């Protein structure tokens, strides 16, 4: 019986495809989020401003009812200081920070829990990576014209990542308990 010869380049291509199949969804999500963060922190504020669209497409009269809200976040945040569209934009931007880092936290814990035990160590590692990404994102903003890097944003991002990790563990525990009950 003749032995079948395999071309090295074909074997290598097959191995590369196998490696890509082994990467979990969370690896792709993590890379995608890092790319999105890099691109968005490379853009000057003027290119990202939501104010013109908010003013043009939304009736912001309700914001005047929120004149009593005032606090400091690298400057005064209030309707009087920022205007109605600036005030709404501030909260949209901060919600975006938290939301993207919730997803990043979920992706990172899913990725690290496959590699590290105990689970507490995996959670700590995922959180540390998320905060490190937040620090580099803010540092990258400093290098971009018209942008500032804020420690407050790193804290906000870290909070989002922590929420994502806790949500993952909450869901994962329930999923594991259901699986154990079925067995």
Description:
This protein has one domain. It is 74% helix and 3% strand. Strands 1-2 form a two-stranded antiparallel sheet. With 183 residues, the protein is mostly helical. The protein is elongated, with a radius of gyration of 22 Å. Helix 2 (25-42) packs parallel to helix 6 (119-142) and helix 5 packs across helix 6. 21% of the residues are buried. The model is unreliable at 179-183 (pLDDT under 50).
SSE arrangement:
Elements: H1 8-22, H2 25-42, H3 45-48, H4 51-57, E1 70-72, E2 76-78, H5 79-113, H6 119-142, H7 151-182
Antiparallel strand pairs: 1-2
Q: What is the structure about, briefly put?
A:
This protein is mainly alpha-helical and 183 residues long. The protein has helices at residues 8-22, 25-42, 45-48, 51-57, 79-113, 119-142, 151-182, and strands spanning 70-72, 76-78. The longest helix has 35 residues, at 79-113.
Strand content: under 5%
Structural class: mainly alpha
How confident is the prediction overall: mean pLDDT?
86
Number of domains: 1
SSE order, one letter for each helix or strand: HHHHEEHHH
Give the beta-strand count.
2
Counting H and I runs of at least 4 residues, what is the number of helices? Answer: 7
Strand order of the largest sheet: 1-2
Shape assignment: elongated
Please state the CA-atom Rg, rounded to the nearest Å.
22 Å
Which regions contain 5 or more consecutive residues with pLDDT less than 50?
Answer: 179-183
First-last Cα distance = 47 Å
Report the helical percentage.
over 70%
Tell me the major beta sheet. Answer: 2 strands, antiparallel
């Amino acid at each position: 019986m003749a032995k079948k010869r395999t071309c090295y380049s074909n074997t290598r291509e097959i191995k590369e495809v196998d490696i890509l199949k082994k990467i979990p969804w969370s690896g792709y999500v993590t890379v995608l989020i890092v790319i999105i963060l890099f691109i968005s922190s490379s853009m000057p504020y003027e290119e990202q401003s939501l104010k013109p669209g908010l003013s043009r497409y939304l009736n912001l009269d309700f914001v005047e009812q929120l004149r009593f809200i005032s606090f400091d976040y690298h400057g005064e945040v209030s309707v009087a200081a920022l205007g109605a569209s600036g005030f709404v934009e501030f909260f949209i931007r901060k919600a975006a920070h938290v939301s993207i880092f919730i997803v990043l936290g979920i992706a990172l814990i899913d990725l690290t829990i496959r590699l590290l035990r105990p689970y507490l160590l995996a959670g700590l590692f995922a959180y540390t990576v998320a905060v490190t990404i937040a620090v580099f994102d803010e540092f990258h903003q400093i290098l971009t014209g018209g942008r500032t890097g804020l420690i407050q944003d790193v804290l906000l991002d870290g909070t989002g990542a922590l929420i994502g990790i806790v949500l993952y563990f909450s869901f994962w525990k329930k999923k594991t308990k259901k699986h154990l009950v079925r067995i």
